[in-house]
Amino acid sequence: MKAITQTDENDPRSLALTEVDDPQLKSGEVLVKVHAAGVNRGDILQAHGNYPPPPGASEIIGLECSGTIADPGDTGREEGEEVACLLAGGGYGEYVAVPEGQLMPLPEGYSLTEAASVVEVACTVWSNLGMLAGLREGQTVLIHGGGGGIGTFAIQLCKALGATVAVTAGSDEKLETCRELGADILVNYKEQDFAQELKGRCDVILDIIGAKYLKQNLRALNTDGQLVIIGLQGGVKTEINLGALLPRRLSVRGTTLRARSLESKADVVRSTVEHVWPMLADGRVRHHIHATLPLADAARAHELLDSGEVTGKIVLEA
Amino acid sequence: MKAITQTDENDPRSLALTEVDDPQLKSGEVLVKVHAAGVNRGDILQAHGNYPPPPGASEIIGLECSGTIADPGDTGREEGEEVACLLAGGGYGEYVAVPEGQLMPLPEGYSLTEAASVVEVACTVWSNLGMLAGLREGQTVLIHGGGGGIGTFAIQLCKALGATVAVTAGSDEKLETCRELGADILVNYKEQDFAQELKGRCDVILDIIGAKYLKQNLRALNTDGQLVIIGLQGGVKTEINLGALLPRRLSVRGTTLRARSLESKADVVRSTVEHVWPMLADGRVRHHIHATLPLADAARAHELLDSGEVTGKIVLEA
Nearest to residue B147, comparing CAs of B181, B185, B191? Predict the structure, then answer.
């Protein structure tokens, strides 16, 4: 089959369609003929050698896709069934082997291309804000990078849960997008100190920055507040004052989706379909695609996402 | 009334019985005539000026006591009822005002003196391991300072929950005590690196050390592991590698009991009576008193606890 591979291992931009071996099905997996694959920051990190696939996963880039079942293996699924898939890797290819627990139906009213790019963001946001932090009506949540792919999705999902939503972003244009999606409190991090603006008010913070924001995030948390770190764009190591945690009973947690066990991923997928798919079906959460490119243009897609100027998702079509 | 006060504010050992104003009851509080008060590390910290009472709480030392209701105020309680009390302060006096939500019955078979010293440790251990971390059968828990007041109690409670219990302590004698109480894995921290011994195995860690142990604690945690910090005997500030949290979905939490709201304390008290009192009644958790001293000897009691050589609780009798 054909798949995107890195032709020069020292050049993360050297992504090209090449001939590779077909995926081999293991028990409990189905073979999916890929229709489209979403592009994620993790894919760019992997091309840079900073986000290696977990043991046993495909070396091919791509954390989500949609397509049709080409071979149900031993699962009892139907050949030809349309599915969206959460992947540990392999989305940027013609075919991909997918554990049955990571198959999802298409959200009602969604095309294959739309579905391909909603899986990773929906599972990431729901597993952290819904399943882990248990965000509920009346609480205040802070979402960093409100204008990005995760941010725009999280704003809407949190509003659907009845939370007050604060966001940070780096431009007034992005903040205006956040406001249109329902964000209640807007902070331009280039002009304001979010910790000062939100001091002691946030029950949950969804953070993609890490080290650089840790101290400010702790200041922004309310009693019993939870900081959930899902990205480390601002570095990994920093000083922590544990004395700040105790009196207000704060917690700092970190998660990734990709490193979860098959069982844990199946849990996330089930819960996401149960809770988030209805929000997509009735439009409480709208999913915005910024651009659709042919799979062969993966390098261009990464460049576009890496520019930081994108609001919405980028999708590759096979 | 008479109460222990600090006669020289620069000398934490200058604790003496002096004449002070009687406590004034607020709505929802009862006046308790103190029979006995437990001695806790927080009391020593307060005498050193490092653990000030929360706003509105008594300035008198003492986080737990037992006694009889001398004035039920507007609560509808019975005068003369024997109670154990969780306090924000005030235990080291003849009388103390107690919010009704912080009154507990004596555990079945317990004397007033025994009951006085079991409240703080029971609420601390249960609120952290039971309510917050949700420790359950089959999980592995690490308890630092296994030979101390919190440690000896926590070992038994965790065994009663069906967990595998690992402990650290600084002497083989203390470790032997831990073993007798049910601990399964014994680590002498002066001779062994607990992170090496327990690498990746602990679902929950109950920590009283803080900064000095942070890095090792994170290494010792299993996937989805929770580090719960309730003391900072090893300092407050240190470097954290947030990159260690994400792939294994670790969480770092800190808590105190004293700073909780009245509502939150009432929750803890209710849940502790429901879950822990039966363990005390049937002997699954045994509570050991090391020494009983008269209230006037508070300074000596603090010295004894501070020596670090005590296994079991110290109680002051009024």
Answer: B181
